[in-house]
Fold this protein.
Amino acid sequence: MRANESSGFAYRYSTRLKPLSCVISMTARVFAIGLGIALLLPLAVYTGVSISSPPPDSRHYYHQSYDTRIEEAKTREEKQKIKSQKILEEQRMEAQESLHQLRMFYVSFPVGILAVIVGSLLAARTVGAGLMYGGIILLAEGCYSYWDRMTTILRFASVLVALAVFVVLGYLKGSVEHSGRNDIRPNV
């Protein structure tokens, strides 16, 4: 009899906890990997879009304090000219922001749909879950960034496409799991 076995209960209790702690540790690692994929996928897409269509930087559009210049202007014509410049700069920035958001939508929405589909088909559950959650974030981000500029038809179509993908995947995955359970029948 080993020295550890002398207390019976304590020995059995300690040997049962080790595998459980390994499972918890492994579950935490798997969760961290899936979470990392889910968070980094949208960041990668945003960065990629920003390379080709950078978001507007207000420092480039507002070089001067227009409000201060308007207050310091002596004549009404000077004030009007400064106000016109300010409005023009705001319009340029708005156009640049709109273009960035449009490209963000047209890239992140299809990539999000693709990530959800690929993630649902992967055998590696950790990577699949990470891709699916990352795809959901991309869908939300893409629609949210451009939502107020979308036409009503585009809003409806984008939500309908995303919903259809999830319904079809849910149906297909559910029927595969269901058919797997029916294959195991008790002998009657």
